[in-house]
Write a structure and sequence with these properties.
The chain is mainly α. Helix content is 70%, strand content 1%. It has a two-stranded antiparallel ribbon with strand order 1-2.
């Protein structure tokens, strides 16, 4: 009996394997299309991961990653960062910028997608959608140049202040207007491009539901509440979980370009700190350790957000 069961299991496994290869051959065009991005992800995302060993070594470029000696203790670089008197301020600045960016950019993207979905004129909808994509492709250098120009005493923002009878101020001096500029420009850049995912999900809404809602006397708000919103909840949840994981990974390039002698100490975040230590000062092991710490925190945030989602609605969680 045992032999018969073992034989049946072997046949089933062989049949499953055969079905898998048949399906793979049947979908060979899609497999070939996916092959290039998969290879790129492996090369640029997974292969370099061995480099995190640098965080635990006394790295010397001449010796390489494997040839460099291990630190004693192995967590020395991490301890050095937390002993830094500015580490607490760096972490706080990073959290502040990341959380505020998420609180403004995420709802703005979702709201824009919902509003755009309600536009019935197809020409107008496509025009607005195309125009909203443009800021995403503008260089960070150009955006920061625009912000510096607009924030100067003779710039656009001060012209608006002057129109309303307010005093002209140099908005680039100090850190008072930094968050306003940073988050405002982030919303401007992200709102159009980020709406693509939501609009793709909304394209799958069964149009007959709208007809039924019209018969029941539902207005636009009712349709959004009971038809549109339930459709994009899974997409919204997944994107929110992933964005929470990137709270500490802000666009440090923009922050670097917005820094000057009057605000450099107040605008430092972990990203700019890693750049300073790794690229400018050449302390690669130390910079790698700090960046690894950020990655661990990001993973913990994603894991926590996913666990909370699973308790609320398991169908909308990542795993």
């Amino acid at each position: 009996m045992a032999k018969k069961s073992k034989s049946s299991a072997t046949v089933t496994a062989a049949g499953t394997q055969k079905t898998f290869w048949q399906l793979l051959w049947k979908q060979r065009v899609l497999v070939l299309m996916a092959l290039a991005p998969v290879i790129m992800v492996i090369i640029f995302k997974y292969v370099p991961m061995y480099g995190i060993l640098i965080a635990f070594k006394n790295y010397k470029a001449s010796k390489g990653v494997w040839g460099s000696d291990w630190l004693d203790p192995f967590y020395k670089n991490f301890a050095t960062f937390f002993k830094n008197v500015n580490s607490g301020q760096l972490i706080w600045n990073t959290f502040k910028v990341g959380v505020l960016s998420l609180l403004f950019t995420f709802p703005a993207t979702l709201g824009f997608a919902l509003l755009l979905n309600e536009v019935r004129n197809k020409w107008l909808k496509r025009t607005v959608q195309t125009i909203s994509y443009i800021p995403h492709f503008i260089s960070v250098v150009v955006i920061c140049s625009m912000l510096n120009g607009f924030g100067s005493t003779e710039g656009l923002f001060n012209n608006i202040r002057s129109f309303f009878g307010l005093e002209r101020v140099d908005m680039n001096n100090g850190s008072e207007y930094f968050l306003l500029f940073y988050i405002g420009s982030a919303v401007w850049q992200v709102v159009g491009w980020g709406s693509i995912m939501y609009l793709s999900a909304l394209a799958n809404v069964d149009t007959t539901l709208y007809d039924v809602a019209n018969i029941d006397g539902a207005n636009r708000w009712h349709k959004v509440q009971h038809i549109v919103w339930p459709t994009i909840i899974p997409t919204t949840t997944v994107l929110l979980i992933m964005n929470i994981g990137n709270v500490l990974n802000q666009d440090y390039t923009k922050i670097l370009l917005m820094q000057n002698d009057t605000n450099r100490s107040q605008l430092d975040v972990i990203g700019t700190f890693v750049y300073q230590k790794g690229i400018v000062e050449g302390k690669f092991a130390y910079a790698t350790a700090v960046n690894l710490f950020i990655s661990i925190i990001g993973f913990a945030l994603v894991f926590a957000a996913n666990q909370i989602t699973r308790k609320i609605n398991p169908e909308n969680s990542l795993w």
